[in-house]
TrEMBL record:
Keywords: Polyamine biosynthesis. It comes from Paenibacillus albus. This is Spermidine synthase. NCBIfam families: MFS_SpdSyn (NF037959). Transmembrane segments: none annotated. It holds the Pfam family Spermine_synth. The lineage of its organism: Bacteria, Bacillati, Bacillota, Bacilli, Bacillales. InterPro entries: SAM-dependent_MTases_sf (IPR029063).
Length: 246
């Protein structure tokens, strides 16, 4: 492993490194990572246009499947710009808390996403026009989880107000599937705002192992093709508590 950047900023401890192996796959990879191995993005240096992780592929499929003509997306959490880069022709408005992430994504990952606002994703979303977006995507997590103010009932009510008719909010989280009380709470809170919700998880060898969880909420029935969910499968969560701002 070759360290290209390591610094503790006001928001995160950030490391960028090159590695000859990632998740058991040999090759040439560049990774952006927060503390406690919380990977925020990875690039295959031999094939930079390839999407390395499964969850962006699954989120993109959900957008395409539920609205093939979607055009405007609000994204919280920039990472290395994978999702926006992989959706040519789509207008992304991206919110990123840490300006260092945006700088590194451009300098070390070749990101060309220009419409990035620096600041809290919820505060910036509040400034957007009503019914402006086909999708609101949340991809903002650390080893401590997704910030609570981005999973509360009030936040989901805000996303509903910013979505066009038939739009959806899609969250990528780290959780433990059906055994995770926080994931269950996020889903139950989402259900108080949206008529239709679905939850998808990557399989895991252990119930206690953290894995990517995708949660989607919409006012319309949610469509997907399991063969295009790149390993994510539908799961059912227990009823959880409702997350409030205070």
């Amino acid at each position: 492993m070759r360290i290209l950047f390591h610094e503790r900023t006001s928001e995160h401890e950030i490391t960028v490194y090159d590695a000859p192996q990632l998740a058991g796959e040999r090759g040439s990879f560049r990774v952006l990572q927060f503390a406690e191995n919380a990977m925020q993005g990875a690039m295959d240096l031999d094939n930079p246009e390839r999407i390395v992780f499964e969850y962006p592929k699954a989120m993109i499929h959900l957008m395409q499947c539920n609205n093939p003509s979607y055009a405007n997306v609000y994204l919280i959490g920039h990472g290395i710009g994978t999702i926006a880069r992989s959706c040519p022709g789509i207008r992304f408005t991206t919110a990123e808390l840490d300006s260092n992430i945006v700088r590194l994504s451009k300098e070390l990952f070749g990101c060309r996403d220009d419409d990035v606002r620096i600041g809290d994703g919820r505060a910036i979303l509040e400034e957007q026009a009503a019914h402006a977006f086909d999708y609101v995507l949340l991809d903002a997590f650390t080893a401590k989880g997704t910030p609570k103010h981005l999973t509360s009932r009030s936040f989901f009510e805000l996303t509903a107000a910013k979505l066009m008719e038939g739009g959806a909010v899609i969250l990528n989280m780290m959780g433990k599937g059906g055994q995770d009380t926080v994931t269950a709470a996020v889903h139950s809170t989402l259900q108080t705002v949206f008529a239709y919700t679905r939850v998808f998880s990557l399989p895991s060898s252990s119930m206690s192992e953290l894995r990517n969880i995708i949660i989607i909420g919409s006012e319309r029935p949610i469509r997907f093709q399991e063969s295009k969910m790149v390993g994510f499968v539908p799961i059912v969560l227990d009823q959880g508590y409702i997350i409030e701002d205070h």
